[in-house]
Amino acid sequence: MPIPILTYHQIDIVPPHGTPFRGLTVSPRQFRLQMTWMRRLGYRGLSMRELMPYIQGKAVGKVFGITFDDGFRNVHRHALPVLAELGFSATNYFVAGQIDGSNVWDTGQGIPPAALMNAAEVREWARLGNEVGAHTIDHVHLSAVPLAEARRQIEGCKAKLEDLVSMPITAFCYPYGEQQAAHRELVREAGYDNATLTQRGLARADDDPFGLPRVNVHCGTNLLRFLQKCLTRHEDKRRAIGLES
Ligand SMILES: [Zn+2]
Questions:
Q1: Distance from the CA of 138 to the center of ligand 1, in angstroms?
Q2: Which of 9, 38, 126, 175 could form a disulfide bond with 24, CB atoms 3.0-4.6 angstroms apart?
Q3: DSSP bridge partners of 172
Q4: Could you say which DSSP state residue 144 is in?
Q5: Cross-strand bridge partners of residue 102
Q6: What is the pLDDT along the chain (245 residues), one digit of tens a residue?
């Protein structure tokens, strides 16, 4: 059974119209509504760690994946309480060189700076049953750096985050979704179990665990569209014909 892995970035007041990449922010109210509806419909939101057996067909149930990219502080503030309340877990992909930093990689694109979680917040994220995933040390374009540097970014991120939370880090996410076969191999060699893309689609048992597609949720996704994305195979058809939403 194909399973949706949701992608969120920031959970906060949505910036004004015209702000670049405004869609990457989902309001706290919208997020709560989306999660509450999934719960009402009998679904459980899971981190990648807990979701993998379902994707691989080793477990069966009404589940979906919840992932956040970049480790924004507003996710700790606005999403963490909702997840805890509903008994859901999620994976946040942290940029190891920017703990307590900000989205410096977005500078120059007009994207407003936003704070990233500090060490205590990352630890609390993990302590409450959520997963700390890896998103390189510096949020690099993996395709644009030499392989040796890509390896350092992929391995180094894992080591730094494992130091921080004293737990194995097994989930990876390619910044900007950029990856080639060599990068998937580096991720596998580094000891991760799975890696997600920005490519749209539902995750299936026959997908490469180091190239899992996801379903993007943005501020313009109304509840009906959200449930459609989660509960139908519609997204998979789009994937097959290569359409973007
Ligand atoms: Zn990112």
A1: 10
A2: 9
A3: 134, 195
A4: G
A5: 115
A6: 899 999 999 999 998 898 888 889 999 999 999 999 999 999 999 999 999 999 999 999 999 999 999 999 999 999 999 999 999 999 999 999 999 999 999 988 888 899 999 999 999 999 999 999 999 999 999 999 999 999 999 999 999 999 999 999 999 999 999 999 999 999 999 999 999 999 999 999 999 999 999 999 999 889 999 999 888 764 455 454 444 43
CA 176 – ligand 1 centroid, Å:
6
What is the reported pTM?
0.94
For residue 42, report the distance from its CA to the centre of ligand 1, in Å: 30
Q: What's the CA-to-centroid distance between 173 and ligand 1, angstroms?
A: 8
Residue carrying structure tokens 């058809």: 237
Residue 41 Cα to ligand 1 midpoint, Å, equals 30
Q: Where are the domains of the chain?
A: 5-241
User: Within a 13 Å sphere around the CA of 145, how many CA atoms are in the beta-carbon half?
Assistant: 18
Cα-to-centroid distance, 60 and ligand 1 (Å): 30
CA 18, 94, 129, 231: dihedral to nearest 10 degrees? 50
CA of 93 to the centre of ligand 1 (A): 8
Q: From the CA of 139, how far away is ligand 1's center (Å)?
A: 6
Burial class (CB in 10 A: 0-12, 13-18, 19+), 185: middle
Q: Tokens 């120059």 identify what position?
A: 108
DSSP for residue 145: S
Looking at domain 5-241, which of 3.40.50.300, 3.20.20.370, 2.40.110.10, 1.20.1260.10 is its CATH number? Answer: 3.20.20.370
